[in-house]
Design brief:
The chain is mainly alpha-helical and about 200 residues long. It is built from seven helices and no strands. The relative contact order is 0.16.
Length: about 200
């Protein structure tokens, strides 16, 4: 008997939260110092994606973006103590903030959550490009276990799609493709971090 889509989506959501604890552990150990303003922008953007995605009719697959929102918000709070940088907006932060606000305006004025979702996905991709590029140039700076878990969760979320319409399937497919392409160089990395002779 196949598992219900709702259950698969819930499991994918739980697994999507797990990498947050890896990141928090790294912060507490002083191994990473997140940019404070970036995580607050990510929390806002993730929240907008979750809201617009739910409004398109997604239910079973909505646990993953909700987990990302929880993770981003949690990291944002931890960054207040363990992060670095002022609350000055960088270029990508401005793009992300403007995109989130514009998508909210489109949604409100046109009562159209799907265009808002598409706008938020585009902004999300732009915001994560630096991480994607860093994974290829310096894969040792990314946590392999966390990326394996989050990619597995996004793969699992594809099996939670109950209706393969563009509005429902677009986000799960986007997240799986992005995570997979980012994970690839991290897993394939044969080099050691500079200065690490072990």
């Amino acid at each position: 008997m196949p598992l219900p889509h709702a259950f698969i989506g819930e499991v994918a959501g739980v697994f999507s939260i797990v990498p947050t604890f890896f990141y928090i552990r790294a912060m507490l150990r002083g191994e990473t110092k997140p940019d404070r303003v970036t995580w607050w922008i990510l929390a806002l953007e993730s929240g907008m994606i979750s809201a617009s995605y739910l409004a398109t009719g997604a239910h079973e697959t909505a646990w993953v973006p909700l987990a990302y929102t929880f993770g981003s918000l949690t990291c944002a709070f931890f960054s207040l103590k363990y992060g670095e940088g002022s609350f000055r907006l960088h270029t990508l932060d401005r793009v992300s903030l403007a995109g989130a606000l514009l998508s909210a305006l489109v949604w409100w004025s046109l009562s159209a959550p799907f265009p808002a979702l598409m706008m938020n996905i585009c902004v999300d991709f732009i915001g994560f490009l630096p991480t994607f590029i860093k994974a290829y140039k310096r894969p040792w700076t990314e946590d392999k276990t966390a990326w394996i878990i989050v990619t597995a969760a996004s793969l699992l979320n594809l099996f939670a799609v109950s209706a393969w319409t563009l509005a429902i399937a677009l986000y799960p497919v986007y997240v799986f493709v992005y995570n997979s392409l980012t994970l690839y160089p991290i897993v394939r990395n044969k080099k050691k971090a500079p200065g690490n002779s072990q």
